[in-house]
Design goal:
It comes from Cohnella kolymensis. This is LacI family transcriptional regulator. It holds the Pfam family Peripla_BP_3. By secondary structure, the protein is of the alpha/beta class. It is built from 13 helices and twelve strands. It has three domains: about 45 residues, lambda repressor-like DNA-binding domains (434 Repressor (Amino-terminal Domain)); about 120 residues, Rossmann fold, CATH 3.40.50; about 130 residues, Response regulator (Rossmann fold). A six-stranded parallel β-sheet has the order 2-1-3-4-5-11, sandwiched between helices. Strands 7-6-8-9-10-12 form a six-stranded mixed β-sheet, with helices on both faces. α1 packs across α3 and α5 packs across α13. The protein is elongated and about 75 Å long.
Length: about 325
């Protein structure tokens, strides 16, 4: 079985250089990096991960808990996080909680037993104490939990932008479909910004909230159909996600409601499918890739015992397409 010293000799570099390549730490030229990887492959060298983790006192594994990877938003977010974490030498353990307290608790226990270097939380159903007592660093998405750093887009501004666009388009009866506003999520600020902006213009929107665990298209369609039946005069609608907006397009098509002629529609997130829909969806763009990289960087710094700021709010922009 070849050793790290054998790899160094054949590659014509020091053992320290091989170690830096393995751990993705320190400056190594691309040509040297490629040469070391080529030699490792030729020699069938397999690093001893247990020994490496003991030496570093780090496992180079991260945990990520999300409601469901089947949801395109969380799928794209996970893809960006895994890709960037991998470039830093981390492996990612992905957990689908379905917003179930018991599952989330079991996943947290599993991540603790696997000694992950940190946890990125995109699902939060447990009491604050469950997170605070974790020894591993945590970074959350769209939720403030005690003194835990969090990453979010400027949700309030996103809601304001959506309201202003619908008003500028001449909408007179405006509606909003959003997540459960009783949950303590920063994402609910997009609803606050939207509703407050309309009220400042003496307009009260029709608001329908989804349940705490609504991720199936049939559930979305049921809520949308209910809204359009109860408010047939709605001519502007802000959906708090692009997935909801996509389902609005489907339901409107079945009812013969033309978008944007009869109903102007705005989503949130700017997932890749938003531009592929027919009509393509006007949406509030979250800088998802930048948010993912920031979350990984924060975990990496926390794992290295650095101190980081708690609040990280990234700007949003409006992307106007065919639904308005």
């Amino acid at each position: 079985m070849p050793t790290i010293k054998d790899v160094a000799i054949r590659a014509g570099v020091t053992v320290t250089t091989v170690s830096r390549v393995l751990n993705n730490r320190g400056y190594i030229s691309q040509s040297t990096r490629e040469k070391v990887h080529r030699v490792m492959k030729e020699m069938h060298y397999q690093p001893n991960e247990i020994a490496r983790s003991l030496t570093r006192k780090r496992s180079m594994m991260l945990g990520m808990i999300i409601p469901t990877i089947a949801h395109p938003f969380f799928g794209e977010l996970t893809n960006y996080i895994e890709n960037y974490a991998s470039s830093l030498g981390y492996k990612l353990l992905i957990c689908n909680s379905r917003m179930d307290k018991q599952k989330e608790k079991e996943y947290i226990d599993m991540l603790k037993s696997n000694r992950v270097d940190g946890v990125i939380m995109g699902s939060h159903t447990l009491d604050v104490e469950e997170y605070v007592k974790l020894k591993q660093p945590i970074v959350t998405f769209d939720r403030r939990i005690a003194d835990i750093p969090y990453v979010s887009s400027d949700n309030y501004k996103g809601g304001v932008l959506a309201a202003e666009l619908l008003l500028n388009k001449g909408c007179k009866k405006i509606a909003h479909i959003c997540g459960n506003l009783s949950l303590d999520l920063l994402g609910n600020k997009r609803s606050e910004g939207f509703i407050e902006t309309l009220r400042h213009r003496s307009m009260e929107p029709a608001v329908i909230e989804l349940g705490t665990d609504v991720f199936e298209h049939s559930d979305y369609e049921r809520v949308i159909l209910k809204l359009l039946q109860e408010h047939p005069d709605v001519d502007g609608l802000f959906a708090s996600s692009d997935i909801i907006a996509m389902n609005v397009i489907k339901v409107c098509s079945s009812l013969g409601i033309k978008i944007p002629e009869q109903l102007k529609l705005i989503g949130y997130d700017d997932i890749q499918f938003a531009a592929l829909m027919n009509p393509s969806i006007t949406t509030i763009r979250q800088p998802l890739e930048e948010m993912a990289k920031l979350a990984v960087d924060l975990i990496d710094r926390l794992a290295a015992a650095e101190t980081v700021p708690l609040e990280h709010i990234l700007p949003v922009t409006i992307v106007e397409r065919e639904t308005t």
